[in-house]
Amino acid sequence: MIDPSTLRPGRPFPQGATWDGEGTNFSLFSEHGERVLLCLFGDDGDEQQLAIYDRTGHQHHVYVPGIGPGTRYGYRVHGPYAPAAGHRFNPAKLLIDPYAKAIEGAVDWGAASVLPYQADGSEDADLAIDETDDATAIPKCVVVDPRFDWGEDRLLEHRWSETIIYETHVKGFTMRHPDVPEPLRGTYAGLGSEPAVRYLQQLGVTAVELLPVHHIIDESFLVDRGLSNYWGYSSIGYLAPHSAYSASGARGQQLNEFKAMVKSLHAAGIEVIMDVVYNHTAEGNHLGPMLAFKGIDNASFYRLSPEDPRFYMDFTGTGNSLNHVHPSVLGLMMDSLRYFVLDCHVDGFRFDLASTLARELYDVDRLSGFFDVIHQDPVLSQVKLIAEPWDVGPGGYQVGNFPILWKEWNGAYRDSVRDFWRGQTPAAEFARRFTGSSDLYEGDGRNPEASINFVCAHDGFTLADLVAYNDKHNEANLEDNRDGTDDNRSWNCGAEGPTDDPEITALRARQQRNLIVTLLLSQGVPMLLGGDEFGRTQGGNNNAWCQDNEISWLDWEAADGDLRAFVAEVIALRRREPVFRRRDFLLGEPGGSGLADVIWLRPDGEEMTDGDWERDDAHALAVFLNGQEIPTHDREGNPIEGASFLIVFNAHHEPITFAIPDTLTAPWETVLDTARAATGDRLGNGDGDGEPDADRLEIEARSVRVLRRR
To answer: What is the CATH number of domain 587-709?
Structure first.
């Protein structure tokens, strides 16, 4: 027990719990709260409440001598319970510190009601306060020791042009990995283990983009169904790594384990990018639970309806939206980001539903305070910043409209590439996406690196399922298959789902290789969904957000080794040849070599015309990429001399003969052919691979051939 007479005023900053070797300073923001209690918990669960009397501005602060790492704590905040005025203070409810650097465990939904109101099922239930104490149900915050031996570790700062992103889940990546020690599977230590890191290194990716690892709360309705929020887009602690991914413990050990994972990946040359969810929290709408922000200062932390502050503005589809206009809420975001860069050595961030962050009052604003603060910050302006450039609110689709420092998930790329290989999009749209989407990014001074290209991501079908299913199969989500998108269209790949037909199997495998080659050789920054490199399936589930089981976990035993080797080969080709990772847009104009930097060709060898571009049946075309016209240098400033390439795309259901024009005649080497998944074939000078003519290529139906000339 702490003697209250030993308490000292402490400091308003930094916020959260800060241990100095002799005691801990606690500081909590609450603008409208009238009185704050610091609640300390012993190992037996006993609670001691200490009143915080000192207040600087809106910071309530106290210094407690003798309190150190491993101590569990929370808060209770007194104030008006007046939902109609936007206030929901309820001191019967224990609250999580928004600045906690470690949080122990999950909500125990059966232990006590974490709802701040009397849940009687009526529409006005939230208007009557519930005074049931819920301390037994709420996770406890933990005081941490910030010390960690980083050695020589630092941010890797890979150029965007050199970056290849691998999107994956901390737990799902290693949960079934046979070479990762069983106690480490599904944890930070597992992802940082030698077998996991070696695999990523051998595949050739340069960055892992991790689904959310801020502390997560599973929704009660999922727990009732025996499910959980596997993806983790349900954050409650923005400075705390999720404790369930820790193999070493949840009393602060998770923080050191997270740091050790980053250090291990860095040693292999792999950057760490965090998917962060600052647009909403796990507390839901006016009928949701009280876990932290609602009880600390609801009117400050959330966007409330101007017409009726009892209700929440919802630009995210989750029930609430954080109030980024409020300086303390914006400060929490910035402090969270800086903490993970400076203290945890994270290399960058992907911002979920980033359009929400740019809404000053209602509309998306490119000049919002959020962008201003990021751009002016000497730390955050230097790391990798990726936007998911949409939300579910009006005007939320903002692909191509983020500011100069930002890269964007290019949804237009995903849709166009998929449609091209289904034979359903004009060649012009495909060509724009393949060459870096200049129509989206060139106008504001950005370059191809602004485009994060992807075909599949966590949200949707895996690559193997994309070409095997016309319809979603989300029955395991227990929503009668109503959830998830219905936008998949026929791939003409035969039977739905698994099949023993060798022709259908071969066609699906070829389409996967087509999409992989297109993705990895496009201008821009490629992002590969974890497991797509070896044919991972979710059984047609395109919304596996609540499936923390074999549906989502990578199945290493069933991996397609041939596909994995093929993907590694294409990645190596991209990393070896600068023509595939230009830092400026292709112009289509003649250079010093006498040839343009890019030439698009019809099957007859003639250049594409305006009329050709818009033909709905133009499903076969070729592109010449001139490696002699690349103004690029290595890190030491030495010029890089690259090869030129001819890439022939045939999305048609029949084979097509392509003619190589006289201007491009030369010995050509086939380095990739998705029809055969073979390499090293030669064309030209009578030394071919069975081709009847050195200037004519027989391209199989639905295939890509990549040829190189020196």
So the answer is: 2.60.40.1180
